[in-house]
Write a structure and sequence with these properties.
Helices cover about 75% and strands about 0% of the residues. It has 8 helices and no strands.
Length: about 140
């Protein structure tokens, strides 16, 4: 089983979440795997002129909010289109869902304001999923 399968299993055992949220979490995890990992996501936001947002999520301070429009700006057309297609939703719907989850996810994956080591990533993802989907 891969990282996504393990994470989805952790989410399913974590509580009663909406199927849409679980699907978006799975898609975000897939995005991490297909875009150069966490560093690739951070770089995408920085290249889109949104470095201040993503750095607030990585740092230990308060997370700045992000809009669905900014999500679409930061993620390449191919990446975002694939997520929307995978979830069978319109781009703005997916962007708004991701905008709600991504700051929390990156914040959880970067404890103490540092990027995780490869081995720590799975534990951090599992912990995030369980906390996000608590009843």
């Amino acid at each position: 089983m891969g990282l996504l399968d393990d994470l989805m299993g952790a989410m399913n055992s974590g509580g009663a979440a909406s199927a849409g949220s679980a699907d978006v979490m799975g898609a975000l995890t897939g995005l991490l795997g297909s875009s150069g990992g966490l560093a690739g996501i951070v770089q995408s936001f920085e290249q889109a002129g949104l470095g201040n947002l993503v750095q607030s999520w990585v740092s230990t301070g308060q997370n700045l909010p992000v809009t669905g429009e900014q999500i679409m700006q930061a993620l390449s057309g191919g990446q975002f289109g694939a997520l929307a297609s995978q979830l069978n939703l319109q781009n703005p719907e997916v962007a708004n869902m991701i905008a709600q989850m991504l700051p929390q996810l990156i914040n959880q994956l970067t404890p103490n304001g540092t990027m995780p080591q490869a081995g720590d990533l799975m534990g951090s993802l599992t912990s995030f999923a369980q906390n996000f989907f608590k009843t």
